[in-house]
Amino acid sequence: MSGLPPRSALTPGTVVDIVQKQDQRTGRRTRGEVAQLLTRSATHPHGIKVRLATGEVGRVQALATEGGAADQQS
């Protein structure tokens, strides 16, 4: 399995880095707080899809770390 967090590691309020659909080519990440889990399965090869508190939707690439930078390329 890849290093993507499973659904069990995500709850509303968790701060994560996501890749939105329009940023898939560049890998640009957006940081935000999870408002809703959209993927029902325990894992997904491209990351669990979530809606952030800001309304943005994307697939989780990593749990946010203290001092880590958002809006980055992987």
Uncertain regions spanning at least 5 consecutive residues: none
**Cα end-to-end separation:** 18 Å
Strand content: 25-35%
Query: Considering DSSP H and I runs of 4 or more, what fraction of the residues is helical?
Result: under 10%
For the largest beta sheet, what order do the strands appear in spatially? 1-2-3-4
Based on DSSP secondary structure assignment, what is the total number of beta strands?
A: 4
The average pLDDT is 91
Count helical runs.
0
What would you report as the Rg, rounded to the nearest angstrom?
11 Å
Structural class assignment: mainly beta
Strand count, sense and barrel status of the largest sheet are: 4 strands, antiparallel, barrel
Order of helices and strands: EEEE
Shape: globular
Notes on the protein architecture:
The chain has 74 residues and is an all-beta fold. It is 0% helix and 34% strand. It is built from no helices and four strands. A four-stranded antiparallel beta barrel has the order 1-2-3-4. Strand 3 and strand 4 form a beta hairpin. The protein starts with 14 loop residues before the first strand and ends in an 11-residue tail after the last strand.
